[in-house]
Amino acid sequence: MISGLAKAWWGILHSQLRLEATATKNFATTAAIGTSLQGLAIDSRFLVRTIGTNSLGAVLFSTLAFFCACYQVDSGKPHAGRLTAFGTLRLMQLDTTLTNPAMNVDPAYSCSNASVTSPLEQEVDCLTEALSFKYEELSLIREFCQRLDLGKKTSTICRLLLSELHGCIQATTLAIELDAADDGDRDDAYGAEAIELDQGAAELHLHGDEIEASRLRWIVDAAIRQRNRVQGIREQEDCKHEDSQSSTITIANHLCLDGELYNAIVVPIERGGQTLGRMIAIRWQNEDEFGTTEADLMRSTSMMLGIHLVNQRQYDEMQLMFEGTIQSLVSALDAKDAYTCGHSSRVAELAVRLAGRLGYDEESLQRIQMAGVLHDIGKIGVEDSVLRKPGKLTDDEFEQIKIHPVLGFEILKGIRPFRKILPAVRHHHESWDGSGYPDGLKGDAIPRDAQVLAVADAFDAMTSNRPYRDGMPIERVLKIFAEGRGTQWASDVVDELMLCY
Ligand SMILES: [Fe+2]
User: How would residue 90 be classed by pLDDT, with cut points 50, 70 and 90?
Assistant: First the structure.
């Protein structure tokens, strides 16, 4: 797409500038292919010399160079492409970008011989600088978006954003302050102009020099007061209001606190009319003032952060709802079979412990924890008289009990997040020698999660007290496991159990 745009711009340029044939061929090739910014730089020097009296041509050239710079970045060399692009865009720096002797540049085209002092060239420089900032803004948003991940903690995302932003904005301190998500007085608190960091802030993330929260609060409040004063004066003078979007961004320079001067930008982090927090940039005394360029950059990134925060909070709510669903299922089972109340939670705890020793990663640990909690959920479908029978079961009753892994499988299989635990739920009563149920799987054919669950399940069943019997002593339980190692249970799982006790 970029090369197409480059061709289109080149067509306009050609009619505007009437370039020499040789240069036309060289430049058109470079722009169309867009693979060499250094090549573009060579031709751009010629163009600068050629279009010296044509401001429209200068604008077109700057735009074309910007598109080609984008193309270079899209080709897979973001930082190198970016730096080269800026070097190319900034006409004053053209000579410093041309270091390849193989290009055999005609010295007559060199920009260093021409002093950039005319109003037109200054205009071109300003335009290219503005394009550079816009390009920087787009690059920052793109890199930030690539790193957004709902699985990451908000604090991690904020630190990433501040780090990326610090590469674009020269600030002494950058801060992201997030308001509490579950504030009962949320609307009132968010609507307030005065910012109370110690009351409403849930999180405060800093990058750069450390600053006390009280000092940060003073600077933010002072910045907003200054903005309100200036805004009020403008409204009186102009008898008109600024648009609501721009009025929420605060740029305040020369704020004096304890003899020190501060420059600050405060940008709200918003989404759907709701303020989620604010982004703050601070420069201390003897540093440049902030301007709209930095504010625009912060506004763009704060918008992206606002979208992410809303998505993150919805994701967290869904996660809570999911966990609540699991707990409801477990509670239903505990209510049905009071004898084994708490069994599922204990099995899950021991299974996670064993799995951790066996080298499970974090995601797998979460999976087996869920499987442990829900492994006996199929018992909901077993008759109460069988499930609650205190004495020994008849063969017929035992056959009824044996269907609970399949029932659990059938109950959970229709819910997508539970699909990953289905093998463990279905096969947690399989035996290593193939004598288990429901499918008589043998050895490594038994899913690994089910192997771990089988050990944890049996250990808890043997050691826990029931109303009709006491749990076995641990020594006897371990002796049973030693005898069943490699016949009923997986040997390495039993070994880890032995090491735990
Ligand atoms: Fe079971």
Answer: very low
